[in-house]
Design a protein that fits this description.
Layout: E1 3-7, E2 10-12, E3 18-25, E4 34-39, E5 46-51, E6 58-60, E7 68-73, E8 78-83, E9 92-99, E10 112-115, E11 119-123
Parallel strand pairs: 2-11
Antiparallel strand pairs: 1-3, 3-8, 4-5, 4-9, 5-6, 7-8, 9-10, 9-11
């Protein structure tokens, strides 16, 4: 079955960096767009970034543009999220997800078929 496993989260000071990884199994990763979302208690899951399956086009939430970079290595079946200049408001549980063929907006959670279990990112001094 399809499995997504996130890793790389942790505690980091403001201004620091982390690189999240999303390792996929049970599917041909190169066929699918992959998104990263984050969530904090009491708030809806927020789209952070997405990378397409075809031409590698990337999409970012305004709040992370210029600081985060999404990339993929189809041979390793892994998608990455490089996060630089982290801010306390970046704190949350980060999830990766496989996007479905529905043609809607990349930042809408219902567009995604499969989800990982999440990894905690805490930005605090």
């Amino acid at each position: 079955q399809v499995q997504l496993v996130e890793s790389g989260g942790g505690l980091v000071q403001p201004g620091g960096s982390l690189r999240l990884s999303c390792a996929a199994s049970g599917l041909h990763l190169d066929y699918y767009a992959i998104g990263w979302f984050r969530q904090v208690p009491g708030k809806e899951r927020e789209g952070v970034s997405c990378i397409s399956s075809s031409d590698g086009s990337t999409f970012y939430a305004d709040s992370v543009k210029g600081r985060f970079t999404i990339s993929r290595d189809n041979a390793k079946k892994t998608v990455y999220l490089q996060m630089n200049s982290l801010k306390p408001e970046d704190t949350g549980v980060y999830y990766c997800a496989v996007r479905g063929p529905y043609g809607g907006s990349w930042y809408v959670p219902s567009e995604y078929l499969y989800w990982g279990q999440g990894t905690q990112v805490t930005v605090s001094s």
